[in-house]
Design brief:
With 424 residues, the chain is α/β, with parallel strands linked by helices. Strand 2, helix 3 and strand 3 form a beta-alpha-beta unit. The longest helix is centred in the last third of the chain and has 21 residues.
Length: 424
């Protein structure tokens, strides 16, 4: 505002020119040039998956004429969503709006808020925080006439905080696998597990309680969003014509069902992931989702979805790559991924870039606690040294942490010996 006249003044500037296009290798370019339909991109560490994902989105908008509002990119963290959106905006030279890149839960919440009938809830729908969930659970677990009757051996534990946490974990895992209270109860009856029968009855009571206060939790959010997506499938498919998913190996069955409603039946879907980095099974993620992508997301002609593997890593040199592959090679990749793509993913190569002397250390520990304590000590030392040198803390480029809990000591030693002696 002009202080002299009190009038607003606007300055029009030339638009920011589009950023330079990165140089892609042949496998990254194959992803960008994919004509459409379902595509799984297998991308190990350092292979440029985020760059590839951003360039594929830019190609849809600049090269194929899609409006940014027709593009949906889903990730698993706000930071990743913001970074992807910023990369695409920088390449296009203009903003794209917040909707284009979102977390799964933010997108699910927006779906439920938009489509759920107002009369379904007695109050405006809100997402419960973790402490609020604990309060609701413990109130329902308290002893009152309408309480679910748990097996007698749990009677003394039902009022404890630990029992509430265990119940919450069971209910979350069940819903992430697409089960409602009735399905969980029937599973308990079929398998003779009486605590599952009680948990199924409790889940129905818990969801009724959430409905009465106009609330939902994270696990139920995906389930509700999937229901709305099925009902409004055609509208959503018309709106989001190009769907991208990062870290696909971390999806749970409920999220896969949501994706099938929005981008199934041969529509344009690009999913990027690394089955070797599937580490969230404790919260319901199933690596089977990525291993069976080709058959779960077939092409429009009924054939299996396409698969491309990014093969060139730029993050570390040959010694670290050899060690990592020695460990990863012991993990099977069952599923419906074509053999050629499987072999390409399992045999990455290093980019010809000058690096320091790669160093590999293989350490074994008696317990997971000992392993965690050692890693914490390394981080403390690095932070202390970084603070002393007034330099930002960063992960050394010549180091790699291998989770050897799946290997015995002899196997871990063999990995180290092979690398040091230059074998493999």
């Amino acid at each position: 505002m002009d202080q002299g006249t009190g009038q607003s003044r606007y300055v029009f500037r030339a638009p920011t020119p589009p950023g330079p296009a990165p140089v892609l290798d042949e496998h990254q370019q194959a992803v960008v040039d994919h004509p459409g339909g379902p595509l799984l991109v297998l991308a190990g560490p350092g292979t440029g998956k985020t760059t590839t994902l951003a360039e594929a989105i830019v190609d849809r908008i600049e090269g194929r004429g899609a409006h940014p509002d027709q593009v949906l990119a889903l990730t698993f963290s706000r930071k990743a969503a913001d970074q992807l959106r910023d990369r695409v905006s920088a390449r296009l030279g203009r903003t794209t709006g917040a909707q284009m890149s979102s977390t799964f839960h933010s997108f699910a919440y927006a779906l439920v808020r938009r489509y759920a009938p107002a009369e379904l809830y007695e109050a405006p729908l809100r997402l419960l925080s973790a402490p609020e969930q604990d309060v609701v659970l413990r109130e329902l677990l308290a002893d009152h006439p309408e309480s679910v009757r748990w097996p007698e051996r749990f009677r003394q534990a039902t009022g404890t905080r630990g029992f509430a946490r265990e119940v919450h974990a069971v209910l979350s895992r069940a819903r992430e696998k697409g089960m409602d209270g009735e399905a969980l109860r029937e599973l308990g009856e079929a398998e003779g597990v009486e605590e599952y029968v009680a948990a199924g009855l409790f889940l129905e009571q818990y969801l009724d309680s959430l409905d009465s206060i106009g609330a939902t939790d994270y696990a139920d959010l995906i389930r509700r969003a999937g229901i709305e997506a099925e009902v409004h499938r055609e509208e959503l498919r018309e709106r989001f014509r190009h769907v991208f998913v990062d870290e696909y190996q971390d999806t749970d069955p409920g999220q896969v069902a949501l994706l099938r409603a929005i981008a199934g039946d041969g529509r344009d879907l690009v999913a990027v992931g690394d089955p070797h980095q599937s580490i969230y099974a404790f919260r319901g993620a199933e690596v089977r989702g990525i291993l069976e992508f080709p058959t779960r997301f077939p092409r429009a002609d009924g054939g299996p979805g396409d698969v491309v593997a990014l093969r060139t890593t730029r993050r570390f040199g040959p010694r670290i790559l050899t060690a990592a592959q020695r460990v990863a090679g012991r993990m099977g990749l069952p599923g419906t991924i074509p053999e050629a793509a499987r072999e390409a993913f399992l045999s990455p190569v290093c980019a010809p870039v000058e690096r320091g002397n790669d160093r590999v250390e293989v350490l074994t520990f008696d317990t997971e606690r000992a392993e965690a304590d050692h890693l914490a000590d390394i981080l403390r030392r690095d932070a202390r040294d970084a603070d002393r040198d007034a330099a930002p803390l960063r992960v050394a480029e010549d180091a790699v942490v291998l989770d050897t809990t799946a290997l015995d000591a002899d196997a871990a030693f063999q990995v180290a010996t092979d690398v040091v002696e230059g074998r493999g």
